[in-house]
Amino acid sequence: MDPAVAERGWLPEPITSDREVYIRAALEAAATFDTQKSTREEWLDYLDTWFTPDTRYTSEADQRAAMTESQGLLRQAVVLPKEEWESLASEDGRVVAATTGDLVYVPVTDDTTGDMSIGTSDVTLTFTRSDGSGSETSYEERVRVSVQVLCGPGSVPTPDSAQKAGDCKVVRYFTEPLEP
To answer: What is the pLDDT of residues 16-56, one digit of tens each?
Structure first.
């Protein structure tokens, strides 16, 4: 969406109704950051803009509550914990995430529209840290993660963006990968 976010060390949110493209980007965005270009809270606030209300709830109040809960789960149990961010920041660190392999799709319970998808993929996280003498060290970790997205007329675009209803948005991330 906004390529300028890359200057902050983040991945731009794609404007697309292609669930595979969006799911891959959402999985990567939840672990791509540069501790020298933004704070953890700024990054998390940015990730909040990827969310849309869960249309399986009929009342707006229930939709808002579910979205707030999903954003809280992202902060508490999905992304790099604050202490690890701070450790990485003390070494001028950054992480770049890349999905690897095929996406596995899981049906979304109670979705009568067919507009929601849960995608699971392996993600390789490349951590880069400064050793304090001007050199850097990199290492990889592999994780398997899942995200639920809405790609249909019920999605709510990010304000002041080029998105439109129907473009994919995040409903929630999961703490454990979901498999069929």
So the answer is: 999 999 999 999 999 999 999 999 999 999 999 999 999 99
The answer to whether the CB of 156 falls within 8 A of the CB of 53 is yes
- pLDDT, mean of residues 10-21: 96
User: Strand 136-150's sheet: what is its strand order?
Assistant: 33-34, 94-106, 116-130, 136-150, 169-173
Whole-structure pTM value: 0.95
Q: Could you give the CA distance from residue 169 to residue 155 in angstroms, rounded to a whole number?
A: 6
Residue 141: both structure tokens together: 């970790």
Phi/psi of residue 76, nearest 5 degrees = -90, -30
Does the pLDDT value for residue 151 go beyond 80?
Answer: yes
